[in-house]
Design brief:
Layout: H1 3-27, H2 34-52, H3 55-73, H4 82-101, H5 112-122, H6 128-132
Amino acid sequence: MDDLLAEFLAETVENAEIVRDRAGQAGRGDGGDAVAEAFRMAAAISATARYLDIPRLKAVAEAVERLAGGLRDGRLQRFSGSEALLLAAVGRIEEIAGEMMSGIEVVDGADGALVSRLRIAANGDQDEDNVNAIDNSLLVN
């Protein structure tokens, strides 16, 4: 693994942890805006993943960027599952980066259900059946 890729993956994991921490602070009413932080993180990851040709990471990051950007800018209303959906996606980004750091080959397209839910929400569909029912296969520990 070259130095640029290794540094990018390490920063991706670190930034995902920051987003999760901010979300926890916001949930307790004593912290920053996790949605804005998720947007900034996803925008950086998306651009770099495009440059480094990591399509799986790029797809998830672009979907997070679109949803978080709409929520941050007020084009979309926050809904009951928005933070959980974003956190599931941030966890998936962290998981992909961690796998790559460990030398595990990541398979493109393995995140289709998550990316689809992010895109549905980013298009303004807040129907519980489409967005809010985040099943266990999307959640990342």
